[in-house]
Each structure stands twice: as C-alpha cells, then as structure tokens.
Amino acid sequence: THFGFETVAEAQKEQRVAGVFSNIAASYDAMNDFMSLGIHRLWKDHFVRSINPGTTNPTNPQGWKMLDIAGGTGDIAFRLLDHSTLINCNPASKIIVSDINPEMLDEGRKRSLKTSYANSPRLEFLLANAENLSEIPDNSIDLYTVAFGIRNFTNKQKALGEAYRVLKPGGVFACLEFSGVTNPVFNAVYKRWSFGAIPLIGQLVVGDRDSYQYLVESIERFPRQEEFRGMIEKAGFATPGWEDLTGGIAAVHKGVKP
Ligand code: SAM
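Above: inputs. Below: predicted complex with S-adenosylmethionine.
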C-alpha cells in the first residue's frame, strides 16, 4: 500500500486522531479543566510526585534525561522540570516534549514562554510519532512519561517497544491514562457523565461535538488495567502493578527496564 507496513485502517485512524487534536489544540487546556472539574491537575500532580524526578544518582550527575511522549501542551513536562528543580534541587535535568501533532506542540511552546524554562536548553520539542522514535538513540533516557496519550496510538504495543528501546537499563516507563472504574454504581454515574455531558460540553463550548465524542469512545476502547499491565510486561518491562486514581477513572502504570 502507499502506507508501507500500515494498513489503510491504521492510516485512517492516525489521520482521525491528528484531526481531533488539531481541532482542539487551542482550547485543550481550558476544556480539560472544564470536563474533569479540574481533577486532571490533581492526577498529574500526583503522577509526577510518585515518579519523584531528578533524585540525585551518583552514576548520573548530569541530571535526568526525560522524554514526555504525547506531551501536547507541556502539562507533564513543566511539572517534571519543576519537581526536579524545586523539590530535588536538580537544575540539570532535561526534558524532550514529543508529540505527533504540530498544533499541540505549538501550544506547548507558547506556554513554555510563560515559564522559567522559556528558551532553556533544558526543554526541547520534538515532532514525532511515538511508534517510531528514530531521533532518540537506544538506552539514552532515564524517564519516559506518557499521559492521556497512549490510548490514541494506532499500535500501542509498538510504542511500548520504542519506550523500552530508548530507556537506559534501570530507566522508568510511567503512564497516566484513563482506565476502568471498578465500582458498578460509580461506573454508571461516570458513564452518564462521559457519554452524555462531555460531547455536549464540546458542542456548546467549542462547537465541536465529534472530537469530544471520539475522546470518550477512545477511553472506552482502551484496555483495562490488568490487560494493559500485560502489554507493558510483553514489551520487556518489570511492572510493580498499577495505581487506580478516583476509583479507576484513571490509572498510573509503571515499568522498569531490567
Ligand atoms: N500529555 C498531555 C496532557 O496530559 O495534557 C496531552 C494529552 S492529549 C489528550 C493526547 C496527545 O497525544 C495529543 O497531543 C496528540 O497529538 C498525541 N498523540 C496522538 N497520537 C500520537 C502518536 N502516535 N504519537 C505521539 N503523540 C500522539
């Protein structure tokens, strides 16, 4: 096919995802607050605290080399740099924010100008597909993060393989993603909110029902906690398990490259 090893369906999915994030890039941060009632900020804060980036490591005096995949508008990357600098007093840690979508990266660049990392060599932006990170050498990264990104990837297992390749031995894979609510009553309430209210909010606030409908459906299709953990292990990582957030609406999965 024209798409090399990809099937037509995979190429269509990639285009659809690209369209969704191009449509919503400018309103992405405000809509996140609105739809999650601000809770995504607490999840992201908790995610970064649980990673504790920038801890001093005698074998790595240069600070951590971090890679935030599907980094979008930089929400995770700025938190990782802040934590490393302010909590662990490590101003040498660096991050590459990578995303497949140039509009989302542009929003990230714009936001970075309002932070202390504006034009800093500690912060780089890279346009790349998580399934093919050819710009990043093998065994070169201390921490790979992906937040609310992997469910959009066409070939998730391939992306996990790339995460494994670029991480150093001992390096950490950390993923924050929507997941499965375990309590059936809470699940019923949550489903009503997500399938009913979120596309409607998308329509009323930014005039785009379809993109938000896609986001809700992509959450529903993403593997549940146990299955996703199996995929991380299949890529070669040792996994300690996962942590459910807000009853399983989101979950943190981690893996260490042996
Ligand atoms: N990590 C950010 C956050 O937590 O706010 C942004 C998450 S946003 C919901 C999902 C991001 O995944 C979008 O910026 C989208 O462009 C990106 N994305 C989708 N498919 C991708 C792929 N194959 N490779 C890299 N990024 C991808």
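The longest helix spans residues 184-206.
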